[in-house]
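ingest -> fold -> write
write: protein_1
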Amino acid sequence: MGWVGASVAISLLHKGVCRELLVNDVRNDIAEGEAMDLNHGTSFFSAANIRAVSIAEMRDCNAIVVTAGKGGTEGQSRLDLLNENLKIAKGISNELKGFNGILIIVANPVDVLTYFYQKYTGLPANRVIGTGTFLDSARLREVIGNKLNLEPKTIHAQVIGEHGDSSVFLWSKATIGGTVIREWEGWKPEYEKEIEDEVRSAAAEIIKRKGATNHAIGVVTATLLKWIMRGERRVVTLSTVLDSTFEYGQIAMSLPVLISDIGIERVVKLNLHPNEEMDMVKSAKIISNAIESAKS
């Protein structure tokens, strides 16, 4: 469960996504304490029954969110977490045998773990979804909004590729009110590098100050689950295991996907600027190398 799991839980309750919320932690007393604490707030959000249970007891859920894993520390990349969190992934996957719902992966490195959770559980690729660059894209819009003094909701901009240092910013497709961002009055070319650096370092800056990131990813994950459970057909950037029709190889990485109540309906293929395509190939290679190193 941890900080992120707790933030996902409270965000789900505030959004009224579920009538029953099951929580688990490797330390059962923590899970029980969180369930008790959350239940005490039920007068202030939609009615829900919150219980601490084993992972095996979650097999009949419509959706499961995996936040389990060692958290990042200052100066540590998401890929540095791989070996420790892969062991955890194997154990959880074994306990989830027979689960047929939607599996949301939040733990890092999210792209690599999304790939292995799909392989370990045997679930169809469209039902194993990594939060990927969904939060990166939200951070991008927020930073652009601050730079231009605009409400982030009016900005359409995406980050794809790895949820990490090789993420790719789609400046060629970013728009504000239908206007290409590079043509927006007051926009300067040097903003792009400044904004990329701020978005990529956002998690590290938060970890430096408070030890973990949890609130924004909690809201992002709860929102994703709300859209899936309600069958809202939306296009967002999420990590998914790609098939052979994509030139990036057998990996999981973030691309725009159409989501619905079945999970991911399809991956949206993009016509990228040549520079962006080169960056995507580099990003895919980094993920592929991490996957291969974990297999060996």
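write: protein_2
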Amino acid sequence: MGKVLTKTMSKQSLSPAAQAVLTAFAKASAGEYVNGEWEQDDVGQLAAALSALADQVTPTTVDPRVSTIRWEIVRIARELETHP
């Protein structure tokens, strides 16, 4: 899915922030073979996109309220990354 989405989206003009999120999604592992069958890793791609979103939207050195929002997004991404 990542390659198709990236190819479709790359035909349109994206802001640098949106492109960074899309690139993170596309570069994340799309899956792996388990017992000879391909298993898509949608959760891993979503986690990568959320992490990139946090980086693009909320810099690390801002007021505490914005930092709280950033770290909540990052926390959700990390939870998704570690969820089996």
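write: annotation protein_2
Residues 2-82 form one domain.
Helices lie at 2-10, 16-27, 42-57, 64-82.
pipeline exit 0
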